[in-house]
Prior knowledge:
This protein has seven helices and no strands. With 134 residues, the protein is mainly alpha-helical.
Amino acid sequence: MTCNDLDARIGERIRSQRKKIGLSQKELASQLDIVFQQLQKHENGTSRVPASRLYEIARVLNTPISHFFDVDEHKSVARTSRLSDVSAIMDVQKGKMAKQVLELITAFTKIKDENARADIVSLVVRFSKPNTRS
Length: 134
């Protein structure tokens, strides 16, 4: 499945869940503070859904964020379990922590330099150890 196929599948799942709970595009867009045309593009798969917006969509539609990624469980068990791990973390986190986790993931995915990403992971791992001073 290509990225474009995945974008389309995520859009289909957004549309399906929105209709299931009886929201119009305009109503959902309003709750997300975006114009309905943007939501329409997300649902059609012509515009990728940013992680932070997908999180908000899942919240408004009262569905786990993992619902939008249940594509083909036979494709990649490792990828699915990693995604499930992130979903589980997001489900447990509340308030400020959830927002920070989402901001971190969103920003991290935009970093093109592989060495910079590795350095960031090392730094976060180092700070997460119990004996690390703040």
